[in-house]
Amino acid sequence: MQLMDTVVLASSSPRRQELLKQMGIPFIVCAEEIDESWDGSVDIHEFAYRLAQRKIERVLTKRLVRGSRWFIGADTLVICGKRILGKPKNREEAETFLKFLSGKSHRVITGVALYDRHANHYDYISETAWVRFAPLEEEEIRWYLNTGEWQGVAGGYRIQQRAACFVETLRGNYSTVMGLPIRSIYVILKRNNYPFYG
After folding, report:
1. Other residues' Cβ atoms within 10 Å of the Cβ of residue 99
2. Are 181 and 188 in contact (CB under 8 A)?
3. Residue 156 in contact with residue 88, Cβ under 8 Å?
4. Does some domain include residue 113?
5. Looking at residues 153-179, what average pLDDT do you find?
6. Which of 3, 148, 150, 164 is in the most buried spot, having the most CB atoms within 10 Å?
7. Angle at CA of residue 131, ends 126 and 134, nearest 5°
8. Is the pLDDT of residue 1 over 60?
9. What integer pLDDT is reported at residue 198 of this predicted model?
10. In CATH, what number is assigned to the domain containing residue 79?
11. How far, in Å, are 37, 58, 81, 109, 178 from residue 172 at the CA level?
12. Nearest CA to 11 among 42, 54, 46?
């Protein structure tokens, strides 16, 4: 049986790594920080996958990935009303985010970029999910902040951990909210002739 090609994941997110493992795709991690601020000049879906592309571009020259062909970048945005909630800078900002999301619906958009170095070709896909939080009491927010789960994640919560307690409804793909939509990853790799089937 032929092994699948190793993919470079341009993200240090443990959730994204978990999801690629779930798909059985071999990968290595090579990630760099990028500026994720939105200036409003492009559509929000395009912004998500352009950020994903930027993550790939930052790692292409690294020695670790010199012989690699396939690169995946992903970026997740949490949008509530007209606000984009990025990764909270500190506990106080995380608290502000959770209070803002309390009792409301919000969108989670994950943009994915795939780069095939042999073909010198980028491809893109994005997926949206809708999440509604129950109204949160002060003690619930304080309890969640004390877990530290708010750190390093868009919107200040992790749906696959204790923040699941706050979710009243979810419409769309659960893995989109986690940060790497499995169906979209499969589709984008398949249409670019990634060797899934040997």
Report:
1. 12
2. no
3. yes
4. yes
5. 95
6. 150
7. 165
8. no
9. 62
10. 3.90.950.10
11. 25, 30, 18, 10, 12
12. 54
Question: What's the helix, strand, coil split of the chain in %, to 5?
Answer: 35, 25, 40
pLDDT tens digit sequence for 54-106: 999 999 999 999 899 999 999 999 999 989 998 999 999 999 999 999 999 99
Joined tokens for residue 131? 């999440």
Among 54, 48, 61, 169, residue whose Cα is nearest residue 110: 48
Domain boundaries, position 95: 7-191
C-beta of residue 52 within 8 angstroms of C-beta of residue 113 = yes
* DSSP assignment string, 22-70: HHT--EEE----------SSS-HHHHHHHHHHHHHHHHTT-GGGTT--E
> From CA 198, how far away is CA 196, in angstroms rounded?
6
- Average pLDDT over the chain reads 92
Residues annotated as catalytic are: 75
Instruction: Give domain status of residue 160, yes or no.
Output: yes
In a domain, 78, yes or no: yes
CB 32 within 8 A of CB 58: yes
Helix (H, G, I), strand (E, B) or coil at 95: helix
